[in-house]
Amino acid sequence: MIEYGLDVDEATIRREREKARVLRKQGWWQSRVSKGVCYYCEKTVPPKELTLDHLVPVARGGRSTKGNCVPACKDCNNRKKDLLPLEWEEYLQKLKQS
Question: What is the pLDDT of residue 63?
Answer without folding.
Answer: 96
